[in-house]
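Input sequence (248 aa), recorded before submission:
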Amino acid sequence: MNILVCDDEPLARERLSRMVKVAGHEVVAQASNGFQALEQVRLHRPDVVLLDIRMPEMNGIQCAQALLDLDVPPAVIFVTAFDQHAIDAFNTQAIGYLLKPISQQQLENALKRASKLNSAQVNSLQQHANASESPDRPARKHIAARTHRGVELIPIENIYYFLADQKYVTVRHSGGQVLIDETLKDLENEFHDRFIRIHRNALLAIPYLEGLEFVGTGQYQVRCRGINERLAVSRRHLPQLREKIHHI
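Predicted structure, token format:
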């Protein structure tokens, strides 16, 4: 892929450029702020922009938002020393958020995800970005989670269930599980079209709902397609779940 590296620190740009080349990709241009990045993107049409956040004149968030106005925007991967900008970054449809100092493997994993971003997905991201400007903002397409690898994006369609435990929520997805600092109620309100409440501490993805199992003494558990785990179903939510299964 053709890649643009944008960072206001020359040494950081050079290090990233070397890592990109080791990964087998080409650095077509460099920039030291958002304005320069926009100019270089228009000149070179890179597939991916590796973008710092804190920069003079135009920061990375502003630059990424401006990139969305292009007919076919490049994929954006933020590379920054600051994790507090993650939510703002993902609202610009960035596909990655790496925390400095990044490793060669982290960069290659992020670039591998970027290489799977086909034109249909780009168009979908653009439509989502335009829709997010309206008062009735649609649900997110990803969940952001802080892990030992940095900040990860978990596609909503890959999530089996949300399980609350004290102040955190476990997100069980096709690649494993992560913890997020969000409430189950907020998640239920945002993703009510895709997830159904099965217990006071659990939301299940409707596409992965496989069936119910009776476990005795009036207790039921739900089978989840794709994994062997079973989740408890409360009596309060059993009627709604039965109705949903009947219409699948």
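Checked by second reader. The radius of gyration is 21 Å.
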